[in-house]
Design brief:
The protein is built from 13 helices and no strands. By secondary structure, it is mainly alpha-helical. Pfam families: BPD_transp_1.
């Protein structure tokens, strides 16, 4: 009976895994089709002659290296700012005693409920007035602002689980507040920091609507714009578009696979200990 239940369980796991992987399989399959092969009733259609040229088009005509650099730059700066601000705010809310601390903590956490695109029009009006459109800061600032509330929430749960005696000993040894936060507390909260870094990366890596609104200079555009380079008024190069999406998804898949264990620890420990 145990073997039967184990077999059923493995079958369920395999079905769930296939359901999770199917979008990637479908994406890769369609990236190898020619434009004439797209108009069919088949969900998957392996071509007799794969169109690897789609990937060459995606790399060259899609300006993939240039847009990749811009995406990496924006994502890296956003992650660094988010980690720094989240750690600083979480420490201030959990360790320091000051008036209206609970009120401001609630205000920060309200940001979790605000979708990034709900701030699109106000941000555009403000950034246009102060000259931040067509700049990296025009993306970095809103991406950071939408990521900090969740990062503060996760880190607050971690910091409450860390004994304050560690910091008291550091103060007795003459450590400044900056050394305590960034040399003592920061290493202890590494699982949470990795979780925040990966979720922030995924938030800004594939974001397109805000980038399309704030950026018009080709030299500043991010990876999602590569797909639009193959979209025409009357026809589109679908194979190259799917190739761009495959190339764009590879960094996200690699990063999530590498830090999957840390992400799980960060989410569960922050939820339980907080």
């Amino acid at each position: 009976m145990k073997n039967k239940h184990k077999t059923i369980l493995w079958i369920l796991f395999i079905l769930v895994a296939f359901g999770q992987l199917f979008p990637l399989i479908w994406l890769f399959n369609y990236s190898l089709l020619s434009s004439s092969d797209f108009f069919s009733s088949s969900i998957l259609k392996w071509p007799s002659q794969p169109e690897w040229q789609n990937y060459v088009n995606a790399w060259v005509d899609g300006k993939f290296p240039k847009y990749l650099f811009n995406s990496v730059l924006v994502s890296t700066v956003t992650i660094l700012l988010t980690v720094f601000l989240s750690l600083s705010l979480a420490y201030a809310f959990t360790r320091m005693q000051w008036k209206m601390r609970s009120f401001f903590f609630t205000v920060i956490l309200l940001g979790i409920m605000i979708p990034i695109h709900a701030t699109l029009l106000p941000n555009f009006a403000i950034f246009k007035a102060i000259g931040l459109t067509n700049s990296y800061l025009g993306l970095i600032i809103p991406y950071t602002a939408v990521s900090v509330p969740l990062g503060t929430f996760i880190l607050s749960g971690f910091l409450r689980s860390i004994p304050s005696a560690i910091e008291e000993s550091a103060v007795m040894d003459g450590c400044s507040i900056y050394r305590i936060v960034f040399q003592i507390i920061m290493p202890l909260t590494m699982p949470a920091l990795v979780t925040i870094a990966v979720t922030t990366f995924l938030t800004c890596w594939n974001e397109f609507i805000m980038a399309a609104t704030f950026l018009s200079k080709d030299s500043l555009k991010t990876l999602p714009f590569s797909v639009m380079n193959f979209a025409g008024q009357y026809s589109s190069d679908y194979g190259s578009q799917f190739a761009v999406m495959v190339l764009t998804s590879i960094p996200a898949i690699i990063i999530y696979a590498l830090f999957n264990e840390q992400i799980t620890k960060g989410v569960t420990a922050g939820a339980v200990k907080g």
